[in-house]
């Protein structure tokens, strides 16, 4: 038995690892009563006094207020059998025997755990934090043979994690090649490496996480990446048409976020020319055209997805940017034909493009109603088109609801895309019903239910699901417009009802509408963000789920 001076008043290693109370004796009572012999050992005083400078502990020890020795993994996490939880927001101080040279770029990720989950929720909020925390994606398995501490690697992984937002439908092999920075050209064209690094700066700069800071020299580094991309785009024969289309449409979205609308129009116009190269004949199917240019079946899928994404970008250009039509009529007909007869509900680019197309068609119908005067009031033709569009949107919403219940579609990125498409489709319906709502009680009731549905879906979105999506702001603005009941019909309204010859709301679809109280769009499949957006949607209306009262 040890003397009193040797008795420690802390837990032994065995009790600490099992997380049981220790009496500090040698051996302690817990180890003495164990069925199997346990070595009751304590840390030496020299070990316990060895601490790292304040503020450099790992995130796990910092969160639980435990001592940390700064190792990777630290002894505390190792003893607790949680080495994967040992993560650092930045590089720990060097030991005395290490080189005391200047630190690297400051972008740091744990070398043993490069695919760590986001540390956003484990750090205190500090808008003045100059360090850059890593929000690394999970691509399925770690990549080897690369420097995980490299700044450009981190930018590429950021882009790969958010590539779904930019409409790039890459296979897992091509995504990993981008994250690796593979410039050999065997799996992915080297231009995508520069594109990923350029877009990585954009994602880091516009991220909703307050832990991201503007990188030192970021403007100059972005310029360097843009010059490399432009150089490859202008080099004759350097890119195939599909690669050019994917790069140009991503650059168009880049310029939208940068608010450079002139560069956006130039990129979109160039993408229009490339799309005509991929699909030169109006009578030929899209798949046949893509195979004719030498694309494999796997790349044909990417080509269809890229063409569908062009429709979404075109709608953005008509909605957000005062841009002229950049696509030829024959090309638009072919792209619309793709979404009508070649529609793939398991392709999120097709789903998003179809919702955007409905939004644009509804906007055109509303504009036609507002532009006509009472002497030439819209009648049966306008009503028939609006009714048909409302039915198509309802059918599309059923597809979205079914897709969210499908296991293959309910992945992290797809769930957010489908819910955003639900908001866009509902906004299109809201715009149609808002035309008739001032004079029609049924249209007014349906409009109110649609607005509440938009607000309810918005509540289930995380902040990262809609950051940088100006298109949603337009949808919220449409849904938030106040509808005032008018007891005295206008001349246009009387002529419309006379021409149509119906007493009920002409936009009411014949089939039963989707029961929003049982919709998967309301399920919080992804992490829900803080409420605070719905007030911009409902303007004081509580976004509760009300029962259908037909």
UniProtKB/TrEMBL annotation:
Residues 11-42, 57-88 form the Zn(2)-C6 fungal-type domain. GO terms for molecular function: DNA-binding transcription factor activity, RNA polymerase II-specific; sequence-specific DNA binding; zinc ion binding. It holds the Pfam family Zn_clus. One of its GO terms (biological process) is positive regulation of transcription by RNA polymerase II. One of its GO terms (cellular component) is nucleus. It is found in: Nucleus. It comes from the Eukaryota. The keyword Repeat does not apply. Keywords: DNA-binding, Nucleus, Transcription, Transcription regulation. Residues 92-112 are annotated as: Disordered. PANTHER family: THIAMINE REPRESSIBLE GENES REGULATORY PROTEIN THI5, ZN(II)2CYS6 TRANSCRIPTION FACTOR (EUROFUNG). This is Zn(2)-C6 fungal-type domain-containing protein. It comes from Mycena metata.
């Amino acid at each position: 038995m040890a003397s009193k001076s040797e008795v420690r008043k802390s837990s032994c290693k065995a009790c600490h690892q099992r997380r049981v109370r220790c009496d500090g004796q040698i051996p302690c009572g817990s180890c003495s009563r164990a069925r199997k012999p346990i070595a009751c050992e304590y840390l030496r005083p020299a070990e316990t006094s060895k601490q790292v400078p304040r503020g450099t502990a790992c995130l796990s020890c910092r969160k639980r207020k435990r001592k940390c020795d700064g190792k990777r993994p630290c002894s505390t996490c190792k003893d607790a059998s949680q080495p994967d939880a040992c993560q650092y927001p930045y590089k720990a101080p060097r030991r005395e025997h290490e080189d005391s040279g200047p630190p690297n770029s400051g972008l740091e990720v744990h070398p043993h755990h490069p695919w760590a989950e986001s540390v956003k929720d484990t750090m205190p909020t500090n808008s003045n934090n100059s360090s850059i925390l890593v929000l690394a994606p999970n691509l399925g398995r770690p990549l080897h043979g690369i420097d995980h501490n490299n700044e450009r690697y981190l930018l590429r992984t950021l882009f790969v994690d958010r590539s779904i937002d930019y409409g790039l439908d890459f296979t897992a092999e091509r995504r990993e090649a981008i994250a690796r920075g593979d410039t050999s050209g065997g799996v992915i064209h080297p231009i995508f490496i520069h594109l990923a690094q350029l877009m990585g700066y954009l994602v880091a700069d516009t991220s909703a996480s307050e832990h991201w800071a503007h990188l030192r020299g970021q403007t100059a580094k972005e310029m360097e990446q843009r010059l490399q991309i432009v150089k490859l785009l202008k080099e004759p024969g350097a890119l195939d048409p599909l690669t050019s289309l994917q790069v140009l449409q991503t650059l168009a979205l880049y310029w939208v976020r940068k608010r450079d609308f002139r560069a956006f129009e130039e990129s979109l116009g160039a993408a229009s020319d490339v799309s005509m190269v991929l699909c030169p004949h109006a009578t030929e199917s899209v798949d046949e055209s893509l195979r004719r240019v030498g694309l494999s079946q796997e790349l044909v899928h990417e080509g269809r997805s890229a063409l569908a994404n062009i429709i979404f970008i075109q709608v953005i250009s008509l909605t957000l940017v005062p841009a002229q039509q950049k696509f030829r009529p024959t090309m638009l007909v072919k792209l619309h034909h793709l979404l009508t007869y070649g529609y793939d509900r398991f392709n999120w680019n097709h789903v998003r493009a179809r919702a955007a197309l409905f939004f644009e068609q509804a906007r055109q119908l509303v504009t036609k109603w507002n532009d006509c005067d009472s002497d030439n009031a819209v009648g049966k033709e306008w009503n028939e088109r609006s009714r048909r569009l409302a039915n198509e949107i309802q059918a599309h919403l059923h597809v979205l609801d079914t897709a969210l219940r499908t296991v293959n579609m309910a992945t992290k990125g797809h769930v957010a895309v489908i819910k955003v498409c639900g908001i866009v489709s509902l906004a299109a319906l809201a715009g149609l019903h808002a035309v008739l709502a001032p004079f029609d009680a049924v249209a007014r009731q349906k409009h109110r239910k649609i607005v509440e549905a938009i607000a309810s879906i918005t509540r289930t979105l995380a902040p990262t699901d809609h950051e940088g999506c100006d298109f949603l702001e337009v949808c919220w603005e449409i849904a938030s417009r106040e509808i005032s009941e008018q007891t005295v019909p206008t001349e246009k309204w009387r002529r419309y009802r006379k021409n149509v010859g119906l007493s009920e709301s002409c936009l009411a679809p014949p089939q039963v509408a989707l029961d929003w109280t049982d919709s998967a769009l309301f399920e919080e499949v992804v992490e829900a963000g803080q409420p605070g957006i719905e007030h911009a949607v409902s303007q004081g209306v509580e976004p509760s789920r009300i029962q259908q009262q037909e």
